[in-house]
């Protein structure tokens, strides 16, 4: 069994199939596993994530994958979310003992950066999502911004609440986001189950999460080969025959899962796949959106929270990497070079849907972010910035635009012994680690079905609780 691509989709399918008893050979082009969710070492020895990645309590398949990979203890979950407005004023959001969907209500009512009229509007819209069990009617052909307009949301509610949550969750502007994708974020993350919103952050560099995947595959007779890019997939009599590697060698297998990004897939296949009427024609219509990560090392401690969401700024998140790594469990791998040991602090900033940053020079981005940090972390104004680096990911995620789902192929897409995996395949989820793992599990299930098996890997969503459970049941009965 071949798996091409060692991102989360490829790793999830490889681990699941190895555990099911198959001999898996995984081929990855780069020198490390993890794809977009990985880390690497800078020339000076600092280990940086490609970009900070976070999970939420509602990501049940990613949690299952981390367990299988032996990485669950390297993810720390936080129950309190921290926000800072333009003036640096802080608010927090956390669950109370009230049943969903009311569990966040007390901290939401105390939230200092929203006016009463904003809160009233937001409550109305959130209740309409909850009462519809996450599936309000009439949202299939409108954007999130249109839906917010229909729900009579105030400008403050849109800018300080909906945009803040959704642009970072979906990596897209509200006017380009299909309403159902946005509504799902709130239903699954904040309304259905009291743990859905809990934020999980790795306490190690991302690449250290995948050591167990290699063991899972190799201990069952398989192999994991890095720096082994595939340049062509050969078919024979309408089915998979072999993968040709960049070095010209040929890898054969009974079947193959292609788990590369959708932007790289068509180049590996005969060209009719992407042509009009071809099986994968739709891939050409899936657009991508950018994320920019800015890494900053200060000479002193400038931040006390583990992370902070910014309102009213272009910078959306600040992660206190020194603190997040310091809170790692005893078994977790230590980054090679740690700013905290030298008395300084390492912060990572994230800007999703960073279209405005794409044309900017790196130094301009650093200057802009540094000025914004001064608003919310005053200590940065006096601190010396010892080092900074910018990572622009131009095709970070697929854009959750209206109609994108009709271009996303299923994992068993109609070629014998050839399967697809990747966050861009049909999973019901946006472009996330959870979506990637779901796709890998779905591909693994499809492979086993073809061999006559019926093993399932995909985990159910968190079950709705409280009033949300009542409303969801009523909705599915209607
Ligand atoms: C900057 C950034 C921030 C993000 N933040 C978050 C977040 O906070 N939370 C979240 O859930 N998601 C986040 N995401 C999205 C998440 O990273 C992706 O959805 C997920 O990692 C996709 O996994 P994948 O396996 O589908 O694809 P990829 O990770 O792209 O994996 C594909 C793999 O295939 C390999 N490959 C490509 N071509 C070949 C070839 N010819 N031969 C062999 N191998 C090949 C690649 O090297 C890569 O390893 C973020 C993404 C980015 C870029």
Task: Summarize the structure in words.
The chain is α/β, with parallel strands linked by helices. It folds into three domains: 2-38 and 210-285 and 401-450, 3-Layer(bba) Sandwich (FAD/NAD(P)-binding domain), CATH 3.50.50; 80-197, Orthogonal Bundle (Guanine Nucleotide Dissociation Inhibitor, domain 1), CATH 1.10.405; 288-398, Polyamine Oxidase, Chain A, domain 2, CATH 3.90.660. The protein is built from 14 helices and 20 strands. A hairpin with a 5-residue loop joins strand 3 and strand 4. It is globular. Residues 329-333 have low confidence and may be disordered. Flavin-adenine dinucleotide is lined by residues 4-10, 27-30, 35-37, 51, 53-55, 229-230, 259-261, 264, 291, 293, 393, 396-397, 422-423, 431-436.
Q: Which properties best describe this structure?
A:
Polyamine Oxidase, Chain A, domain 2, globular, binds flavin-adenine dinucleotide, five-stranded parallel β-sheet, 20% strand, 14 helices, 478 residues, FAD/NAD(P)-binding domain, Guanine Nucleotide Dissociation Inhibitor, domain 1, 3 domains, alpha/beta
> What's the overall geometry?
globular
- The overall pLDDT average reads 95
The third-level CATH topology of the largest domain is: FAD/NAD(P)-binding domain
Number of helices: 14
CATH class category name of the largest domain: Alpha Beta
Largest sheet: 7 strands, mixed
Structural class: alpha/beta
Q: Percent of residues in beta strands?
A: 15-25%
The CATH homologous superfamily of the largest domain is called FAD/NAD(P)-binding domain
Distance between the termini: 44 Å
CATH architectural type of the largest domain = 3-Layer(bba) Sandwich
* Rg estimate, integer Å: 22 Å
Number of DSSP E strands: 20
